[in-house]
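Throughout our pipeline, every protein is held as a single compact record rather than as scattered files. This encoding replaces a full spatial description with a residue-level series of whole-number codes. The remainder of this section carries one protein's record, kept here as part of the documentation.
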Amino acid sequence: QVGELSQQLDTESKRCRQLKAQNQDLQEELCTLHGKCEKLEKSKCQLKEELAKLQHHIETNMVDHGHIEQYKREVEERAGQEIRQKLQEVNLFLQAWEAFQDTLERFRTSHHDSEINLLKDKIRYLEGELDWMQSAQEDRACQEISTQAQVERYKELYLREVKAGRWLAKELER
């Protein structure tokens, strides 16, 4: 029995050493977890403080959602009014532009007609001038022919006089 007890004691002592080693490992792990727990507590406190700050920030800086919706509706309404006003201005401008184009087209048409009438009058005037110039040219041609005939006649008369003068000079010398 003593051998058995001695063996049992050895087993129990091995087991006790293992449990002591395991206990020491667990205590080290417990210390590590304790450190982690303290860190987590600090982190938790910091997060609580940050949460409190954020809540305070939200309370002080956030506008009531109803106010935001109302402001949004007002902005949309004003934008719609401005768009309608701008569209109305554009429509008025387009109508004025169309009226201007019509007036311009009428002016161009009347100006074109008056230009045509002026050109027709100018053509008639120039045709009259051409007729007058042609008749003047014909008159000048006739006058030139007449003048040429007179020059020929006076030339002939001069030559006769020169001959007569020579003849008389010869007669005088004789």
User: Anything to note?
Assistant: The chain has one domain: 1-125. Residues 161 and 167 are 10 Å apart (CA to CA). The chain has a mean pLDDT of 88.
